[in-house]
């Protein structure tokens, strides 16, 4: 058996922290909601570590978690209208990604799908907060590096994860 890479170790550690943070944020919820928040938080944290290290959001993490969260949402009775409204946002983000792939990758779109399935009522606020945090970080990169900032990439997953946690706590 080989030792885990430092990226895998970091992803596992952050996944545990993310699961715990989301679980604590939803402490007064039903068991189904707590399970959904745990899956969402752990996945957001692990994906954030991957995005920071590799500038990549692995489908093998995001897609199963999004499906699990969507199933748990349906079982818990989340209104179909909420899920459809979230689906419209994902479609809009997919169109942005197809139009400007350097600005928003398809991995980021799938991450939005996870947030929408995992946070139901707080999802739109989570995405907006995450995008505001990313915009602030982008502005600081531009302020520091000037015109050369346009050649830099900014991993979006950590900002979406932070926005998600903030949305749960507010």
Using only C-alpha atoms, the radius of gyration works out to 16 Å
**Which sheet architecture does the biggest sheet show?**
none
Number of separate domains: 1
Average pLDDT across residues?
82
Helix content: over 70%
Order of helices and strands: HHHHHHH
Instruction: Pick out the low-confidence regions.
Output: none
For the secondary structure, the number of strands is: 0
Termini separation: 44 Å
Explain this structure to me?
By secondary structure, the chain is mainly α. The protein has one domain (8-169). 78% of the residues lie in helices and 0% in strands. The chain has seven helices and no strands. Helix 2 runs antiparallel to helix 5 (106-119). The radius of gyration is 16 Å and the shape is globular. The model has no long low-confidence stretch (mean pLDDT 82).
């Amino acid at each position: 058996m080989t030792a885990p890479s430092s990226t895998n170790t970091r992803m596992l550690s952050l996944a545990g922290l993310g699961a715990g943070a989301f679980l604590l944020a939803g402490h007064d919820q039903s068991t189904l909601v707590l399970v959904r928040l745990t899956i969402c938080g752990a996945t957001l944290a692990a994906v954030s570590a991957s995005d920071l290290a590799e500038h990549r959001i692995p489908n093998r993490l995001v897609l199963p978690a999004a499906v699990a969260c969507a199933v748990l949402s349906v079982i818990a009775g989340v209104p179909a209208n909420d899920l459809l409204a979230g689906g419209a946002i994902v479609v809009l983000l997919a169109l942005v990604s197809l139009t400007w792939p350097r600005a928003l990758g398809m991995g980021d779109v799938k991450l939005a799908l996870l947030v929408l399935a995992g946070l139901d009522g707080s999802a739109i606020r989570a995405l907006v907060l995450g995008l505001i945090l990313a915009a602030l970080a982008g502005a600081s990169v531009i302020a520091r590096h000037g015109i050369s900032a346009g050649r830099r990439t900014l991993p979006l997953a950590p900002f979406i994860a932070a926005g998600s946690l903030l949305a749960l706590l507010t």
